[in-house]
Please model this.
Amino acid sequence: MADQAQADTPQQDAAQAVVARNFPPKGQALITGINRVGLWSLYIKEIRRFLKVQTQTVWAPAITTLLFLVIFSVAMGRGDRQILGVNFATFVAPGLIMMGMMQNAFANASFSLLGGKMQGTIIDYLMPPLSAAELMIAIVGAAMTRAVMVGGAVALAMALWPGVDMQAAHPWAIVWFGLMGAMLLALMGLLASLWAEKFDHNAAVTNFIVSPLSLLSGTFYVISNLAPAFQAISRANPFFYMISGFRFGFLGQSDIGNTNAHVAMAALAMGLLNLVLGFVCYRALKSGWKIKS
Model:
């Protein structure tokens, strides 16, 4: 028996050498760098979650936004009313597209972790080998994808609507402000889902912060028609820059400023705002604030 054990020793040593070469020591992470497979899997999971009910998450918001165009065009667009040199329907259409994108980005991101808290499935987000940055990127990316889908559906409907001209004067502004607006609201939604302990808290953020800022952002008017005090309040609203910049992409005009440089400055400022908010989200996720006991 002793001879047999000695005979097996070289084979065992070879097997241990193979294990040591292919696997790190116990306690050392197997995945280094970015977990691309895990990140992609969570992103696809979040996409499939809202696509399972796409009638509610994509098409219903598009129809609701289109109804805004119909109602306000009938109520305020009579007599060939001109704003920024275009008819009222053409003026209001980009703002409605941007508003629909932002609201749905917030709705998608704000449900992810909150739904896990309420249903007891939050462990499905915390157990996989994903870093806080990867978790944030997947959730925010899925929310932005939903926003783009809603925006595309609304834009298609409005392009077919009589009296609406959807020509793109500055495509870069459409892409930049569209993505930055969706990202801003997705990050806000992620923070809301971390903070909220029940669906009422999430609804409060939507009703008392997101909706008022959206409706008071210049979607249906130019701020030059407001009193100076209200103009100052509007310029403190980041939603105003997102919607006005997005409108600039279609019309080549906006009420941000009189030159393209003003729009470029607003684009840079919105990018920096998203960087700051993204860092806050990352730190909140990394600390486990309200999701780890």
